[in-house]
Amino acid sequence: MRSLNERIRLGKYLRTTLVVCDFIVLNIAYFITSLIEGTDSQFACKMIWLAANLSLVASEWIFSSVHSDRIIYADRLVLNALKSVLLAGCVFTSLLYAFDIYDVPVSTCCLFYALLFVALSLWWVVSRSVLKRIRNLGLNFKRVIIIGGGPTGEAVYDQLIGDSGYGYRMLGVFDVERPASVKFKGCYLGTTDEVADFVHLNKIDVIYYTFNVEEGAFLAKAMKVADEEGAQFVFVPTFNRFLSGNFTPSSVGYLPCMVHALSPLHKRRNQLVKRIEDLVISSIFLVFSPLVFIPIAIGIKMTSPGPVFFRQKRTGIFGSEFVCYKFRTMKVNDQSDSLQATENDPRKTKFGDFLRRTSLDELPQFINVFIGNMSVVGPRPHMVSHTVEYSALIDKYMVRHAVKPGITGWAQVN
């Protein structure tokens, strides 16, 4: 068995070097900020310098994968740099209060962390490019084998050899029999019984296990081989045979599981962005709405008796019911909650027909958007009775209620 220290020595020194360079980048940003603000400013003092450096410690710990993940793209690096800087900024602010420093201008702190974000993003992208060049030269590579030559094994193979700069040296695949895939032609290493000897003789760094659990009689043995040889063992679950869609890792207590996300809006970050967008758009519209609402209200009142607004229960997110607002386009009747309007519906008023043709009757729904039970963009809300009817006729109909209903959606523009 090889020593673990022998296996990880270069990687450890490399990560340490990259982390040290992160702090050098921070101090360069600090120095530039001090020059801009003036060396006699409150920002250019030892306690603030110490707080700035300490603020990066938490980020380096939480976002350590930036320097350890071999397959990571530039957009993810920039996003992680933004998250790292935001976290560092929060820690920095807390440390200033802890050090009883209250007179540092907010503009100075913003300048410092803006510079840090730009510098850190550039450094991470450039360092990643340099590392890829080093690995292309045959340095800092990892020897890898795959156990299982099925579709999942093929997917792992494609990822690992997608770019030689990732630093993976693919030695081959083991399976109970020779894989049928042409991708593994020439790199079949043998049956699962031969894995232990091969790992020992070839100093394998990573073992990717891609058999199904129900086919995994060799799983425990493969893990034992990895432990004995100091290799990293990676179990890749096979989902593609029986699952489709967007799954995210989760847990039930200590039990790991995969959750099927019906919509990207199940992520809180996306929910927040969309809600802010809805609030901004609906607020701007409602501020100027009297310019449109008052003339329409006068037209409705002059053409038929009854209220200006038509209120009706509709089906919202997760099947909940809410009161949807529209301008009234029909004469007051008892069938509004059960009978859908037709092209030549006698219940429609002439002015109401104009509102429907121009979709102006939908404008009060910006009130629903502002309240939060609708969105600007989303599937149109249906009457409760129609939801009951269509859900029995259309497969996966209720999936449309995984998001908030909208004023406009795919059906309205196609």
Key features of this structure:
414 residues, alpha/beta, Rossmann fold, 3 domains, five-stranded parallel sheet
Order of strands, widest sheet:
3-2-1-4-5
Characterize the main sheet.
5 strands, parallel
Elements, N to C (H/E): HHHHHEHEEHEHEEEHHEEHHEHEH
- Structural class by sheet pairing and helices: alpha/beta
In which range does the helix fraction lie? 40-55%
Work out the radius of gyration. Answer: 31 Å
Number of domains: 3
Termini separation (Å)? Answer: 64 Å
Averaging pLDDT over every residue, what do you get?
82
Characterise this structure.
This protein has 414 residues and is α/β, with parallel strands linked by helices. It folds into three domains: 4-136, no CATH class; 142-244, Rossmann fold (3-Layer(aba) Sandwich), CATH 3.40.50; 268-413, no CATH class. It has 14 helices and eleven strands. Helix 1 runs antiparallel to helix 2 and helix 4 (74-98) packs antiparallel against helix 5. The termini are far apart. 24% of the residues are buried. The model is unreliable at 1-9 (pLDDT under 50).
Concise account of the structure shown:
With 414 residues, the chain is of the alpha/beta class. It folds into three domains: 4-136, no CATH class; 142-244, NAD(P)-binding Rossmann-like Domain (Rossmann fold), CATH 3.40.50.720; 268-413, no CATH class. The protein is built from 14 helices and eleven strands.
Task: Please render the helix and strand layout as text.
Layout: H1 4-37, H2 46-62, H3 65-68, H4 74-98, H5 106-136, E1 142-147, H6 151-160, E2 168-174, E3 188-190, H7 195-202, E4 206-209, H8 219-229, E5 232-235, E6 247-252, E7 255-260, H9 268-288, H10 290-303, E8 309-315, E9 321-327, H11 350-357, H12 365-371, E10 375-377, H13 384-393, E11 406-408, H14 410-413
Parallel strand pairs: 1-2, 1-4, 2-3, 4-5, 10-11
Antiparallel strand pairs: 6-7, 8-9
Helix pairs in contact: 1-2, 1-5, 2-4, 4-5, 7-8, 9-12
